[in-house]
Known about the structure:
With 267 residues, the protein is of the alpha/beta class. It contains ten helices and eight strands. It has an eight-stranded parallel sheet with strand order 1-2-3-4-5-6-7-8, sandwiched between helices. Helix 1 (13-23) packs parallel to helix 9. It is globular and about 50 Å long. The N and C termini lie close together (11 Å).
Amino acid sequence: MIIDSHEHVMLPTTMQIEKLNEAGVDKAILFTTTPHVEKAKSSTLKDINSEMQALYRLLSGGYTPQERMEKMKDTIAELQQAISVAPERFYGFGAVPLGLSEDDTSSWVETYVIGNSFKGIGEFTPGSEAQIEQLDTVFQAVSSYVNFPLWVHTFNPVTLNGIKILMNLCKKYPAVPVIFGHLGGSNWMDVITFAKDNENVYLDLSAAFTPLSVKTALTELPERCLFSSDAPFGEPRLSRELIEFVSPSAEVTNMALGDNITRLLTL
């Protein structure tokens, strides 16, 4: 079974399903989304930038904590609705706000993640190193669950110093699976090196900095590489074809395209 392990909610959901069918993908794991770039009038910088403003404001701290939580609840409801359209095609990961107390974080996870039968938590897109440090509370909140991963964006604006903070959290909480989103971007060699020595680290192959990073990850850690497209920012078909093109063997291809995420999430 081929599973795209990271897509954002795209509207209408029928379009998202069409993209899965076009790519020959059986299922997708959906994440909440703030900007709906698929709604842009065109692919011009002006129209894309207009849709991205909501994300830019979020990353820059332009919302109060209460506003941020209310918006997150709305995107979770949107995610639930998308899954309900075709529950046989979709799983979900639930969003969790940063900056809450440990008790409030645990309560949020129980209500909005476990309560919705989501398979993991994320995407976290930290806009600063301080926000990455706040992930400690989330690690604490999920440390009692089994095979319940955190998905963390590790490309720009996350720096190498930020990635190192995340690495330290992975070592502090070795029972918590952590998916390094986008393979660390330009820091992919550091991420792969770290993952080789830490079994709770998984490598998301979307938005690859270079095809070489994907090829190296598949060669070094085939059992912990995860096919994903990051749609609508990436294309499922192209992301799948990249893995198939650079993979060292058919066995490794199958592991990355579905076997690894199936095992991680016990699907």
